[in-house]
Amino acid sequence: MRHPIRITGLSLLVLLLVLLPWIADKYSLQLIIYVMTYSMLALGFSLCWKARLIRVDLAGYWAIGAYATGMLMTKAGWSYWPTIAAGGFIAAIIAWGVGSLTIPRGGLVFFSFAMLVSLVIQQTVAASNFFGGWAGIESMPPPAIGSFVFRGKTEYYFLGLFLLSINFVTYYLLYDSRIGRAWTAIGSGVGFAKSLGVNVVRYRLFAVIISSFFCAVSGSYLASYQMYIIPDSFGFYQSIMIQMFSLVGGLNSFLAGPLVGAAIMTFIPEYLKVTAEIEPILTAVVIILVILFMPLGILGLVRRWWRSSIVIRMRSKLTIRST
Amino acid sequence: MVLLEVRSLSKDFGGLRALQNLDFDISEHELVGLIGPNGAGKTTLFNVLTGFYRPTKGKVIYRGEDISRLGPNEIARKGIVRTFQETILSMDSTVYDNVLMGCHINFRAGVIREFLHTGAAAWEEQRMRDHVQEILEFMALAPLQSELGGNLPHGQQRAVAIAMALASNPRLLLLDEPVTGMNPIETGTMMDHIKHIKNRGITIIMVEHDMRAVMNICERIIVLNYGQKIAVGLPVEIKQNKDVIEAYLGREEE
Known about the structure:
The complex is a heterodimer of chains A (323) and B (254).
Chain A: H1 4-23, H2 26-50, H3 58-74, H4 80-102, H5 107-127, E1 144-145, E2 148-149, H6 153-175, H7 178-188, H8 190-195, H9 200-226, H10 236-249, H11 256-271, H12 279-293, H13 297-317
Antiparallel strand pairs in A: 1-2
Helix pairs in contact in A: 1-6, 2-6, 2-9, 2-10, 2-11, 3-4, 3-5, 3-9, 4-5, 4-9, 6-9, 7-9, 10-11, 10-12, 10-13
Chain B: E1 2-13, E2 16-27, E3 31-35, H1 42-49, E4 57-62, E5 65-66, H2 72-78, E6 80-82, H3 95-102, H4 111-115, H5 119-138, H6 154-167, E7 172-176, H7 184-199, E8 203-207, H8 211-217, E9 220-225, E10 228-233, H9 235-240, H10 242-247
Helix pairs in contact in B: 3-6
């Protein structure tokens, strides 16, 4: 059912998104670029959460994408675009390996081993000179399409919008299909899903692989924008930070939640002038507060408000008093 | 035709013998009641039959095939589906989406093809949706199809759970306490549904504590106590069986 209101709203949104680089100031645009990067990560976290798998290893796949782009461009002279696919592919393979070994043994085994793997990834690139050590990779060339070289934030904005859209639409199609329903069933209970014939291991594995893939894509994007990468950006803290985005947005919203959470937790610290030292503390405090007081996140609050406002509006229309 | 054969089935949990040497057959198209006091092992038996537990000894044979060692999702694919004592639904999904989840088994295309929404996948999707519509109407849930699972009253949630089990086209349906927590009217409605389900040709094993319901619609009753089969027979026979009465029959379940 195509509501005219929906179509108008959607068109306005698209228009806004297209015109954004000319409306927003340069600094906000940079924040938006980071929001898009974080959104892709948070979408991946929420995807695995849908199948009741908690991941604290997404920063590792972020690193894989970033380093694939960094290494292939600086050391092998690749153009930017194939490095996105390469990074994603490597991430998918590693995720497949980790997942196949551990998912059949349970969520906790997966959680622990995956976390270990992501730390190993970070330490490996930091320890070896081949990957640039702790100084990382710098002076990466910007992406180019033919003779058009990326120079300003606007180009990166549209690239990010493009990648995020592909990510978003992919997940949207998945959630709306039999695969998504299998994940929902798993989310309601592993035994329950099995009793309906769902091969829980296979669907969880698929969730892990595809979310790792898009996290790597996000990493390639980050690397291309910053034009340098350092191992410090891909540590355990960053994996936790990704959880925060999904939590704040709302854990039972798998598409809008991560975006909302990423936006809020990127813009608010900026307005509060949070320094780099305070940032981890802020993350921890936010996570604790959200779990305690707002477990369904911002979108959970919005939904509750929306539902109760419907009741209030209906009550004022009804003349019959309900019991 | 015999659908299910249980042979010398035992299940231990450490030192606790939950099921002892169970032996019985279930014929196709039967509606069998499984009763017994709390702790008799009824749900444990269901868990073993559907692959959630492995038997310690003995076998479960379904249509001539030994399924004792299979996992729950493989057993579901063979056509044995169960419901749970606790009502399990997706609370945030609509009734329609919940029942659609039950169709999962029926779909054969692989993950990649589904993802790409190929022609075959789209056609199967449409067939599934028709199937869901039919089941919703069968269980009189059609007017509720857009309601969120979490918003429904208990009785209707149970009906949705059964609809989900039906959606997977079972041959053998195991119902674990379908009318627990329902008032007499809801119970009557559910019993009618179960009768209709049997008329579709589905074999049913039903665990229940509500004696009136069980005696009314079950063709045959198996009685468990302390993991052992203490009686099998027609409802009239069971009502008069000394051992059964001694075990627990005799207090009317409201």
